[in-house]
Amino acid sequence: MRVIGFDPGLRRTGWGVVDVAGSRITHVANGVCTSGEGDLAGRLVRLHVEIERVVLEHRPDQAAVEHTFVNRDAAATLKLGQARAISLLVPAQQGIPVAEYAPNAVKKAIVGVGHADKTQVQHMVRRLLPGVGFDCADSADALAVALCHAWNAGVGSRMAKALEAAR
Which of 37, 52, 66, 164 is catalytic? Predict the structure, then answer.
């Protein structure tokens, strides 16, 4: 199974791809999609084009997207939500199942603590995917989302097989 994770942002959306074979998870690729400058609609179009390019290039079987962090600036949160929608939309357009995870759930899965900081997440992603390199926290966070989903999907798959066997 190949999983792509997204850490949505209007300026930069991080992405990370991992392959899952049983209990073995390997790094495939990671990076950042950028929207540039200009009006919101144009930035969302550029984000859509970049995310679509990544999805078509890496052909994931499943996708995972981090939930929006809601802050005091309602306008900024709304714009972030619109960028997040692109991260949900593109895989769905390709028929790829999309899961969603709260930031604290991702941090708890990767670090063991729901309120871990970005440096702790980056450290654990490096430990879990030896030799991985990333340019920024956005792609590290996206890899963390992909890892979180890989583990959750694996548990769900094993549970489904166990239930089927019990019938």
Answer: 66
